[in-house]
Design a protein that fits this description.
This protein is an alpha/beta fold. The protein has 3 domains: about 325 residues, Alpha-Beta Barrel (TIM Barrel); about 55 residues, Alpha-Beta Complex (Oligo-1,6-glucosidase, domain 2); about 60 residues, Sandwich (Immunoglobulin-like). It is about 25% helix and about 15% strand. The protein contains 13 helices and 19 strands. A hairpin with a 4-residue loop joins strand 5 and strand 6. Helix 5 runs parallel beside helix 7 and helix 11 runs parallel beside helix 13. The longest helix has 17 residues.
């Protein structure tokens, strides 16, 4: 290239922000968030300093799983607006110098989708093989021992044909057969449809599970399977050798990446795996550009757990800049709730987020994380999550509407009745109130994002993990920048001297190695050598 500098992809070192459309902002006053509502609130995302928005599904859907049961991949559900509204959102995103990534849901569709309806109506027709069907097992029951992510058997019987169909989620979400070239061709067209409309890429839902074992062999059972146990206990009763993480999925990723490259677009995998080596396998080759690392969403605030959760993928993945770190999403309790609740939980969440933002890759914030929100309170008679009959397993708490300003429904909607309740928010939780307070959680997250943007050493270069006499401290170095987190309950000496670049508790100036770091806090300093 005659010495010319090789340009980096636009997403390298970017900062992402997840918008859960139903709960972000309601523009038409029906109590449900919509596309116009997203457009109305883009100033907030831009002011925060994010670069790219990930938009959850807005497609036509029966909404059995809140839009992740898609009945038309090339449309907009009237609940959220229209294709014209989507086009206007794209223009608004561009005007704010942001990028827009949308959810692609390729593992399954709705049982109301035309493909599945045709497969049921005509077992001999071309759409039957769009899905995975098998005759009953020898005992007349399901063809194998696979269980779904939501609990129970992963198979449901079609009484008319006498065959079972596979669904790793709800029965209303039949899995697509990715060994059928016709399905592959269908999604090529779907991907191009949205790229032609101007999207900047896709977050591939359930990326780890698209292709299944050709023989649909039984998974090895590693613990007793109890049908009335929690969905995660049922899932963990098996080693998932044949239903997920099949190597053939990498071929799909490579195909999609080739299409996306024509548009300078990104392919991000919802790589829901908890082993660094498995993540590394999914991110190898010419497939996914980025892959989410979810382990930080399932750990306690303990130094050793944090080190393992962060160090593992950094060392396993050949190019750590391909990792998207997250501690929060629309599927798990909010971090402050997981980490003890109240301000202690908020401090711990920011402490952990600061570590992630100082590592290579593309960190994502989930809407409301920057406001320090805990889970909203949702009474039993208001729950909407189809897998959340038990409040401890419900995802409703992390999905309650965003509080924008004091007043009716905290500015989320003109309606006093919203699809989920406000969750017990207060004026202090709102973006408007926090925006005027330079010590608010919003101010601290904005400062964290600004740190990431102004310090190139936090994007490029190796990570050097540092030892410390205090086992409660987690520390690493990026060039001249040292990051130290105190995960314990007592103060601890920082251990290094330098100028303070950022502190979760507002420290400024410079520190010496003996300066004490408060519990549940992180400091970022520039050392002189």
């Amino acid at each position: 290239m005659n010495g010319a500098e090789i340009s980096q992809p636009w997403w390298k070192g970017a900062i992402g922000y997840e918008v859960y459309v139903r709960s972000f902002s309601d523009a038409n006053g029906d109590g449900v968030g919509d596309l116009k509502g997203v457009a109305d609130r883009l100033d907030h995302i831009a002011d925060l300093g994010a670069d790219v928005i990930w938009l959850t599904p807005f497609y036509p859907s029966p909404m059995v799983d809140m839009g992740y049961d898609v009945s038309d991949y090339c449309g907009v559900d009237p609940l959220f607006g229209s294709l014209e509204d989507f086009d206007e959102l794209i223009e608004a995103v561009r005007s704010h110098s942001l990028r827009l990534v949308i959810d692609l849901v390729p593992n399954h569709c709705s049982n109301r989708h035309m493909w599945f309806q045709a497969a049921i109506a005509d077992p001999q027709g071309p759409y039957r093989d769009y899905f995975i069907w098998r005759d009953p097992g020898p005992d007349g029951g399901p063809p194998n021992n696979w269980v779904g992510y939501f609990g129970g058997s992963a198979w449901s019987l079609d009484p008319a044909s006498g065959q079972y169909y596979l669904h790793l989620f709800l029965p209303e979400q039949p899995d697509l057969n990715w060994r059928n070239p016709a399905v592959v061709d269908e999604f090529d067209e779907i991907i191009r449809f949205w790229l032609d409309r101007g999207v900047d890429g896709f977050r591939v839902d359930v990326a780890q599970a698209l292709v299944k074992d050709l023989e649909l062999r039984d998974n090895p059972q590693v613990a007793p399977w109890v049908p009335d146990a929690t969905r995660w206990e049922q899932w963990e009763a098996f080693e998932h050798r044949y239903d997920v993480n099949q190597i053939e999925s990498l071929d799909l990723f490579a195909r999609w990446r080739q299409i996306a490259a024509e548009y300078d677009a990104v392919i991000i995998g919802e790589t829901y795996v908890l082993e660094p080596e498995t993540l590394a396998q999914m991110l190898r080759g010419d497939g996914l550009d980025l892959g989410f690392w979810f382990k930080p969403m399932s750990i306690d605030i303990a130094a050793e757990e944090i080190r393992e959760a962060l160090r593992g993928p950094i060392e396993a993945v050949a190019d750590p800049s391909m990792i998207s770190f997250v501690i929060s999403s629309h599927d798990e309790p909010r971090p402050p709730t997981r980490f003890g609740g109240g301000d202690l939980g908020r401090r711990r969440a920011l402490m952990l987020s600061t570590l992630l933002f100082c590592l290579p890759g593309v960190p994502f914030l989930y809407q409301g994380e920057e406001l320090g929100l805990v889970d909203g309170i949702v009474a039993e008679d208001r729950r909407a999550d189809p897998v959340g009959a038990d409040v401890s397993l419900s995802r409703d708490g992390c999905r309650t509407p965003i509080p924008w300003e004091p007043g009716v429904s905290f500015g989320f909607s003109a309606s006093e009745v919203t699809w989920l309740p406000d969750g017990g928010r207060t004026d202090a939780d709102t973006a408007k109130v926090q925006r005027s307070d330079d010590r608010s959680w919003l101010a601290r997250y904005r400062a964290l994002v600004a740190l990431r943007r102004r310090e190139p050493e936090l994007v490029d270069g190796p990570v050097v993990w540092l030892d410390h006499d205090n086992p409660a401290l987690v520390a690493f170095r990026r060039g001249t920048v040292v990051v130290v987190a105190n995960t314990g309950d007592d103060r601890g000496a920082v251990g290094w001297s330098g100028d303070v670049l950022y502190s979760t508790v507002g420290l400024g100036g410079s520190v010496s190695s003996s300066t004490e770091l408060e519990p549940a806090s992180t400091i970022v300093i520039r050392i002189s050598n």
